[in-house]
Amino acid sequence: MSLISKEISDFSVKAYQNGEFRTVTKADVLGRWSLFLFYPADFSLLCPTELVDLEESYEAFRAEGCELYSVSCDTHYVHKAWHEGSELVGRVTYPMLADPAHVLARDFEVLNEPAGIAERGAFIVDPEGRIQVYEVTASGIGRNAEELLRLLQAAKFVAEHGDQVCPARWRPGAKALGR
């Protein structure tokens, strides 16, 4: 079953961001675009490369009116320890959501139950809280922030121009196709 247009469920989770703990809820997500980037675990080999890639594009996402949320099933305390202990992860300034109860991983259908971790999933959620784009990859395949940004821009364009669609390799300013 597809998750496209699925409304995300209510949630309340702890986050680590810029040296502080805070709570993030569904209400915080509504009213703007969001990217939820699930990854298996803190203190892992591949995950820092993705988180830093997103950090390097964070301002471009924010310019599009999109907040980034990285999510793992670790606690907010583990996020803090990883942030403080890793030169790469220490550069991350967007919220790192903690999902030890697997609330988000289950709702976005990326929970690997036997392992108790999230699969690698990227979800673009519209201002109404509905999933518009998602991809899930095997644990050894990292995602690309530039492509996720392009997908966000295409989703926003289609939402604003319902009679037009974005062809392959579409970029903002390029010609769209009429329906």
Task: Explain what this protein looks like in three dimensions.
It is a single chain. It contains six helices and eleven strands. The chain has 179 residues and is an alpha+beta fold. The strands form three sheets. Strands 2-1-5-4-3-8-9 form a seven-stranded mixed beta sheet. A two-stranded antiparallel sheet has the order 6-7. A hairpin with a 5-residue loop joins strand 8 (120-125) and strand 9.
Could you outline the blueprint of secondary structure elements for this entry?
Layout: E1 12-17, E2 20-25, H1 26-29, E3 33-38, H2 47-56, H3 58-63, E4 66-72, H4 76-85, E5 96-98, H5 103-107, E6 111-112, E7 117-118, E8 120-125, E9 131-137, H6 145-160, E10 164-165, E11 177-178
Parallel strand pairs: 3-4, 4-5
Antiparallel strand pairs: 1-2, 1-5, 3-8, 6-7, 8-9, 10-11
Q: Uncertain spans, ≥5 residues at pLDDT below 50?
A: none
Strands side by side in the biggest sheet: 2-1-5-4-3-8-9
User: Roughly what fraction of the amino acids lie in strands?
Assistant: 25-35%
Give the end-to-end Cα distance, rounded to a whole number of Å. Answer: 25 Å
Reading the helices and strands in chain order gives EEHEHHEHEHEEEEHEE
Radius of gyration based on Cα positions: 16 Å
Count of alpha/pi helices: 6
Largest sheet: 7 strands, mixed
Q: What overall form do the CA principal axes indicate? A: globular
The helix/strand class is: alpha+beta
